[in-house]
Design goal:
With 90 residues, the chain is mainly β. It contains no helices and nine strands. Strand 5 and strand 6 form a beta hairpin. The radius of gyration is 13 Å and the shape is globular.
Length: 90
């Protein structure tokens, strides 16, 4: 599955495509700059969801979202290979 961000309607969203049949999944996450966790079960991304801008982690179906930074300038989060740390640009 591929995650990509786009601004089709004035708001940044993260969309998901299956790689075998170019299948679009019904889930969209409000945000941008997504990176998959090493086990492909979660995404870390930048978002202004719930009126709070920062770096968030969600399950791939947008459940269980958690804000991990509360700073509007944080961007481009990336998981470490072992999934224990997240790097970002302040």
């Amino acid at each position: 599955m591929v995650a990509f961000d786009a601004n089709f309607s004035g708001d940044w969203r993260i969309y998901f495509l299956g790689t075998s049949d170019n299948e679009q999944f019904r889930f969209e996450i409000i945000g941008e700059q997504a990176d998959w966790s090493p086990d492909s079960q979660k995404v870390v991304y930048r978002s202004g969801r719930d009126g709070r801008t920062g770096i968030w982690i969600s399950n791939r179906d947008d459940s269980g979202h958690t804000m991990i930074t509360d700073n509007g300038s944080d961007s481009f989060p990336a998981w470490s290979p072992d999934g224990r740390k997240i790097a970002l640009c302040p």
